[in-house]
């Protein structure tokens, strides 16, 4: 069975600083990988996804992530964090199943941005 | 276009009571999903449906049931609620052949 590990429960960065959120996955085949963001009291919004091809994927809000097969990682990055980026971030791995896609989520990383 | 709507927004429920959480999407997506979100555990899949008329069990299906009579609706029922079912419940959907899931705003359930 697939699994996702987000080793950092909380991260605090200063506004304008760079950000990297770690994600490691376990899955026997080539995974479909996702990053979602959740603001307080809200649902999940897709930031970016990797299915195949270029291992560096660009997403919304200036985020990017790099798929590294050798490290089983899909880390999320942003060169300059804005205060509005404070939220909880979830990495997920998906497997296709009969027309649907079952996602397994990590436990999330809470991002705090200091002004 | 509303996307995915969930009702109620929040609910306090006595243990032992029956409760149905509603989920409706207007995107004509074939696949729909129910997740629960608990602090420190992330989101876990309860049940899913790849198309109308079919359902499947996810990671934590016990105590929950679902039905999929049509494309748009995917209700989640707790037959006899227990305090451990206190959680935030999210419904999601995805088009066939598209791996991205789109999430509703969630239902916050407290079982006392």
How is this structure best described in words?
The complex is a heterodimer of chains A (115) and B (112). With 115 residues, chain A is mostly beta strands. Helix content of chain A is 0%, strand content 57%. Chain A has no helices and 12 strands. In chain A, the strands form 3 sheets. In chain A, strands 2, 5, 6, 10, 11 and 12 form a 6-stranded mixed sheet that branches. Chain A has a 4-stranded antiparallel sheet with strand order 3-9-8-7, with no helix packed on it. In chain A, strands 1-4 form a two-stranded antiparallel ribbon. In chain A, a hairpin with a 2-residue loop joins strand 10 and strand 11. The termini of chain A are far apart. Chain B is mainly beta and 112 residues long. Chain B is built from no helices and 11 strands. In chain B, strands 2, 4, 5, 6, 9, 10 and 11 form a 7-stranded mixed sheet that branches. In chain B, a hairpin with a 3-residue loop joins strand 4 (31-38) and strand 5. The interface between A and B is medium-sized, with 27 and 31 residues.
Q: Which percent range fits the helix content of chain A? A: under 10%
Q: What's the β-strand tally of chain A?
A: 12
| Coarse shape of chain A | globular
- Distance between the first and last residues' Cα of chain A: 41 Å
**Global structural class of chain B:** mainly beta
> From the alpha-carbon coordinates, what is the Rg of chain A to the nearest angstrom?
14 Å
Specify which chain pair forms the largest interface: A-B, 27 and 31 residues
Per DSSP, what share of the residues of chain A sits in E-state strands of 2 or more residues? over 45%
């Amino acid at each position: 069975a697939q699994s996702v590990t987000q080793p950092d429960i909380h991260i605090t960065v200063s506004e304008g600083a760079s950000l990297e959120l770690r994600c490691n996955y376990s899955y026997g085949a080539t995974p479909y990988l996702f990053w979602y963001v959740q603001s307080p009291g809200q649902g999940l919004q897709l930031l970016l996804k990797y299915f195949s091809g270029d291992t560096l994927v660009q997403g919304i809000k200036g985020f990017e992530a790099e798929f590294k097969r050798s490290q089983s990682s899909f880390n999320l990055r942003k060169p300059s964090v804005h205060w509005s980026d404070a939220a909880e971030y979830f990495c997920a791995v998906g497997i296709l199943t009969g027309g649907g896609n079952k996602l397994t989520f990590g436990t999330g990383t809470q991002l705090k941005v200091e002004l | 276009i509303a996307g995915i709507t969930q009702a109620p927004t929040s609910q306090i429920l006595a243990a032992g009571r029956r409760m149905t959480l509603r989920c409706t999407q207007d995107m004509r997506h074939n696949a729909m999903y129910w997740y629960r979100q608990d602090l420190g555990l992330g989101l876990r899949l309860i049940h899913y449906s790849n198309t109308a008329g079919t359902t499947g069990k996810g990671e934590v299906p016990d105590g929950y049931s679902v039905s999929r009579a049509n494309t748009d609706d995917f209700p989640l029922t707790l037959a006899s609620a227990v305090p451990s079912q206190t959680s935030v419940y999210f419904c999601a959907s995805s088009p066939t052949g598209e791996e991205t899931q789109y999430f509703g705003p969630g239902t916050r359930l407290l079982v006392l």
